[in-house]
Amino acid sequence: MTECASCADERAAGAAFCESCGRSLAAGPACPHCGAAGAVGEDGYCEQCGMLAARPRDHLEADAGDIAAAVTDRGLRHHRNEDSMWLAVRGGDVDVVVCDGVSSSFDPDVASATAAGAAGEALAAAGETLTACGGKTVAADKTPAAGSTPAAEAPAAGEALAADVGAAILAAKEAVAALADDGDPRRAVSNPACTIVAAVVRGPQIAYGWIGDSRAYWVPLDGPAEQLTEDDSWATHVIALGVDPEVAMRDPKAHAITGWLGADAGSVQPRGASFTVTEPGHLVLCSDGLWNYLTDPAAFAAAVRTGLHTHGTLINAARYLTDYAINAGGADNITVALIPVRPAPSEE
Amino acid sequence: MSYTAEAFQNEYLALGATEVNAIVTVTSSGAEGGRRTAGATEIIIVDASGSMQAEGRIGAARQAAKAAVACIDDGVHFAIIAGVGTAQQLFPAPGQLAVSSPQTRSEASWAIDRLQASGGTAMGAWLLLAAQLLAQRPGDISHAILLTDGDNGERQGYLESVLDSIAGRFTVDSRGVGTNWKVSELRKIADAMLGTVDIVAQPADLTASFEQMMTNAMGKTSADVQLKIWTPVNSTVRFVKQVEPQVADLTGKRVPDGPRAGRYPLGAWGRESRDYHICVDVAPGNAGDEMLAARVSVVEGDTVHAQSLVRAVWTDDTALSTRINRQVAHYTGQAELAEAIQAGIEARKAGDDRTATLKFGRAAQLAHASGNTATEELLASVVEIEDAATGTVRLRRKVAAADEMALDTRSTKTVRVGRGQ
């Protein structure tokens, strides 16, 4: 006989609910696979069916209201989510990083998490310096340093921001490369690797950088999406050489990347740029789990706008885009970040 | 004692796959200062049948038994059984156990000198007396050494029924001297009693063999260690095999322990490391599903010393699901090696040279590929190995009985991954 913790009533061993007060006698949560009450053990596996109840990285969301939102999801076909993201908001300032683990490497999920964390922290450190230079940590809310910069100084400020992003990507590169000698010896044989795309938004100014095939898009109010990044991939390479894009993307090698973060990445350098928006729109960062289902820039923009218009909030729009990829097959992990950006009021 | 349990596997399964394999390495650091956590009792059973007079075996057996007695630590209980048509206690008085000390050990030596070879062979009766003596010391690390030189003379099935009744109560290491005994009989004892079996072809080598067995037994510090395996609903343990230092199938020794779990006896443990191959049949999962296929614990009574998880993760990524785990592949090969040798010996005895050549060829290939040089050398005494890599062998016309028996008894000896390569 076991006693009910709530009402101290005895009950027959094995009962799922207390006979007296009706409370669940289950110690832990119910198993999402077989439904057994309280069967999930301390190690996360169901004591009945053995299934892992949930992995925290299978679906993660970052919701910063109307400033930014991001969602990452395992999708349908991969056994774990090897994408990682970083979203930091200080007032209107936004730092965002999306990384996609290279599946053929060992521990790619660790690589992407390490890269997103290292780049995010580097951007946060650079962002604080920036705010401190303005001398008004609190006021940074409403008047971000970059937003109040006179137009003439914008290119210089943009370059500085782009340099911050580049430095953050290099910090991530170093951190991921160090993983090869850390922990499991199999990491040395097939070192952890991942892609990265990172961006900062300071008022109307956007700076971004990347290595690999995770992308940044600018989605204006109307018209097709503008792909800001250029994939370090086999497909991009042969398209540049004149192969028909449709044919290139259908090739099994299409997604083979030519640049990545990792101990074997060589001397690859991040590419990047900065610009100041002159009309409102959305900065979208995503992994190939999304853009592979929306290769047409017009379709990409249409999907983003559908998400924004029919679902109201940024987080719902990000969920919509994730579901879009899942409904289209969900063959890869999906990560998407949405950041609305408006032109500086002075430019009206 | 501190134990570790580490699982080696490729957890990734193709969609629809239901077989999960893992090698679990259990390592014990031994008790602090090498001290036993319980008492220990040793029984030495020496065949004193008439045939032991041949080749000076009885003299060598006396020497060996005395050497083994000399290895018994102070304070350990012990007794010596003379094996004839019945079991006769040689030392101390019938039904008693001696406590090891310089004095009792020399008294035992004098008793051993009186051992005469005359009578039959009744291993069932010998083991039954050993079991009765050991029953006086429940909780002890209980171990027996059995030496014989001939076939069991008891009625068919009697030894098996004795083994059924005493299995798991103590460990028995068996040795056959000369070549007139049956490997299959001693292997039956070793399998049931979680012990070893080996041939000592030359009586002169008995002393070294006895010393090694007793020293090894004195190194055991825990009496009854078990492997507890939990599996989820709709799963079954297909097999549990010890695969290192030698192959021993434990599947049939399962004792149920609560819902979905069972215990497998591992015998006495000292400072050592052993590998186990666990194979579980599970219900198939969907892509991305992760299942705990088995929770493997090293237990002693209610104490859980160490735990390791065997997982299954279904994926449609064939690059992951087709990866071959080195340990699993290696020990699957070592188990097949032992089976191939035993099948080869059977076939040769039955006069089926074609099957024998095939089996020995496969064995030579497996032994060579895995770096099991000891087994490869034993094989070479039975067949001419023309090309080990392709498994091309020719049966030797004349094979010494001792060589074939050595190959048979030692066919289950395995090597660890990478050793000797």
Structure description:
The complex is a heterodimer of chains A (348) and B (421). Chain A is an alpha+beta fold and 348 residues long. Chain A folds into 2 domains: 1-41, no CATH class; 59-347, PPM-type phosphatase domain (Phosphatase 2c, domain 1, 4-Layer Sandwich), CATH 3.60.40.10. Chain A has 8 helices and 15 strands. Chain A has helices spanning 108-134, 154-178, 186-189, 234-240, 245-250, 288-291, 297-311, 314-327, and strands at 2-3, 10-11, 59-64, 68-73, 83-90, 93-100, 193-194, 196-202, 205-211, 215-220, 226-227, 261-262, 271-276, 281-286, 334-341. Chain A has a 6-stranded antiparallel beta sheet with strand order 3-4-15-14-10-11. Chain A has a 5-stranded antiparallel beta sheet with strand order 5-6-8-9-13, covered by helices on one side. In chain A, strand 5 and strand 6 (93-100) form a beta hairpin. Chain A is globular, with a radius of gyration of 23 Å. Chain B is an alpha+beta fold and 421 residues long. Chain B folds into 3 domains: 3-31 and 223-323, Immunoglobulin-like (Sandwich), CATH 2.60.40.3670; 38-218, von Willebrand factor, type A domain (Rossmann fold), CATH 3.40.50; 327-410, Four Helix Bundle (Hemerythrin (Met), subunit A) (Up-down Bundle). Helices cover 32% and strands 32% of the residues of chain B. Chain B has 11 helices and 20 strands. Chain B has helices spanning 57-70, 102-113, 123-134, 158-166, 183-192, 206-218, 318-321, 326-349, 353-370, 373-380, 401-410, and strands at 3-8, 12-14, 19-28, 40-47, 77-83, 87-91, 98-99, 141-148, 171-177, 197-200, 222-230, 236-244, 248-249, 255-256, 261-269, 272-281, 290-300, 303-315, 383-387, 392-395. In chain B, the strands form 4 sheets. In chain B, strands 4, 5, 6, 7, 8, 9 and 10 form a 7-stranded mixed beta sheet that branches. In chain B, helix 1 packs antiparallel against helix 2, helix 8 packs antiparallel against helix 9 (353-370) and helix 9 packs antiparallel against helix 10 (373-380). The longest helix of chain B is centred in the last third of the chain and has 24 residues, at 326-349. The mean pLDDT of chain B is 91. Chains A and B meet through loops of A and strand 17 and strand 18 of B.
